[in-house]
Amino acid sequence: MRRVTGRQGRVVRAVVALALAGLATAPALAQDQQPPDDEPIITDQEFEKAVPPVSAEDDPELGRKLESIEEFERKVSKPVTEAPLAPAPATAIEDVELAAPLPPLETFRAEPVVFAGEATAPDDAEVAYRVEVNGLAEADLASDTDLLGDFQRLSQLRRKGNARNTTQISSRAGEDVLLLKKLLAAGGWFDAQVRPRIDRPDDKGPLVVALDVTPGKRFAFSSITVEAEPTLPPDLIRSNLDLAVAEPVITEKVLAAEAKVALALPENGYPFAELGQRDVLLDQDTGAAAYTLPVTVGPRGTYGAIRSEGKEAFGADHVRTLARFKQGQLYDSRMVDDLRQALIATGLFRAIAVEPTRTGQPGPDGTEQVDLVVKQEAGPPRVIAATAGFGTGEGFRVEGSWTHRNLFKPEGALIVSGLAGTQEQGAGVTFRRSNAGRRDRTFELASELHHAATEAYSAYTGRLAARVSYDSTPIWQKRLTYAYGVQLIGTNESAFDPRRAVRERRTYGIAGLTGQVGWDMTDSLLDPTKGFRLTALVEPEGALRSGFTPYARIRLDGSGYYQVADNIVVAGRVRVASIQGAELDQIAPSRRLYAGGGGSVRGFGYQQLGPRDINNDPTGGRSLNEAALEVRYRFGDYGVAGFVDIGQAYTKALPDFSDLRVGVGIGARIYTNFGPMRLDVATPLRRRPGESKINVYVSIGQAF
Question: Model pTM?
Answer without folding.
Answer: 0.72
